[in-house]
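Q: What residues go here?
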């Protein structure tokens, strides 16, 4: 059960200079009020410290501006209203289509309204395509120079120094990856896979959550003609498999790309488990009239996954999951 933390905000009005002397509170009442105020202020840090989890909000493919922009803006307002959010992660395809300069400006303006720490990763619509369509009106995958330019735009838009990176959060390792190669829509370079292997080797005792645009192979049923095909899984699939099997501390893979919504078979299902060890969390896109988002609550010994229906304004308890890493205890993890 997730505990809700109530935060207290104190507002102290300044006395008006024109107030008559007779309106001032007598000293006998002022002293108890001041003591009460000091007690409240002293209690605030303790109340915050009681929160035994970190809250990550996951945004599936936003495709800004796309369709239903007003609905997307309401999602941002809702997330801003949640007092316990530690980070918002968008799992790629922030841009609507090609990742042009104009699209990136629109995306930056949109997420400028977000008042929480924001750490997006790129998707194919952000970094894979050239700025122009071909004569048939179809997207063209960019060459090395074009893709590097798109990755530069992404880094500059969100103040990131590298295409892929990691950070620690309260005993967990969070790894953020990026598509680089053009052979598939969501394919890492071999150099990035080597970096991932090295990063995991250095933190073998930390439960690890990986964020990448595409899901792991076979973690959804074939509910349409794209799911589980080469362009719609994390690539290079065989090398990723080797790395994951070498590193049992990886227990969550968080993805978008497939636009998998809660009413689809496999949204929250045993089929989401990869290699009997890694749970793939599939996230719905935002480019629709009814929007859902997942939240990850990182406790010392478990991650609670909850799904919020922004249309209903309610958490969907039927999709709540508790996932425990097969790793070390809290005290031992925090020493690493």
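A:
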């Amino acid at each position: 059960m997730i505990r809700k933390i109530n935060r207290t905000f104190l507002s102290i009005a300044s006395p008006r200079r024109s107030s008559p002397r007779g309106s001032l509170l007598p000293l006998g009442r002022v002293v108890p009020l001041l003591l009460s105020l000091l007690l409240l202020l002293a209690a605030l840090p303790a109340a915050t410290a009681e929160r035994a989890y970190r809250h990550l909000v996951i945004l599936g493919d936003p495709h800004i501006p796309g369709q239903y922009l007003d609905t997307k803006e309401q999602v941002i307002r809702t997330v801003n209203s949640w007092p316990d959010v530690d980070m918002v992660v968008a799992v790629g395809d922030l841009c609507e289509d090609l990742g042009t300069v104009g699209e990136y400006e629109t995306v930056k303006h949109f997420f400028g309204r977000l008042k929480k720490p924001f750490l997006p990763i790129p998707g194919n619509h952000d970094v894979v395509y050239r700025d122009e369509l071909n004569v048939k009106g179809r997207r063209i995958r960019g060459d090395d120079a074009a893709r590097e330019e798109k990755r530069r735009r992404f880094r500059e838009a969100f103040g990131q120094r590298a295409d892929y990176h990691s950070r620690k959060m309260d005993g967990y390792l969070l790894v953020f990856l990026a598509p680089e190669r053009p052979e598939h829509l969501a394919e890492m370079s071999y150099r990035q896979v080597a970096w991932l292997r090295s990063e995991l080797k250095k933190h073998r005792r930390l439960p690890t959550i990986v964020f990448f645009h595409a899901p792991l192979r076979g973690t959804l049923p074939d509910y349409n003609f794209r799911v589980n095909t080469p362009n719609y899984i994390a690539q290079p699939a065989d090398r990723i498999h080797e790395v994951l099997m070498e590193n049992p501390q990886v227990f969550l893979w968080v993805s978008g790309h497939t636009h998998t919504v809660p009413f689809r078979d496999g949204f929250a299902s045993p089929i989401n488990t990869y290699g009997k060890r890694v749970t793939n969390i599939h996230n719905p896109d935002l480019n629709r009239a009814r929007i859902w988002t997942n939240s990850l609550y990182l406790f010392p010994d478990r991650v609670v996954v909850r799904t919020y229906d922004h249309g209903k304004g309610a958490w969907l308890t039927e999709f709540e999951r508790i996932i425990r890493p097969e790793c070390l205890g809290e005290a031992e993890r925090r020493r690493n």
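A: Context that may help when evaluating the design: Residues 27-49 form the longest helix (23 residues). The first strand starts at residue 54 and ends at 59.
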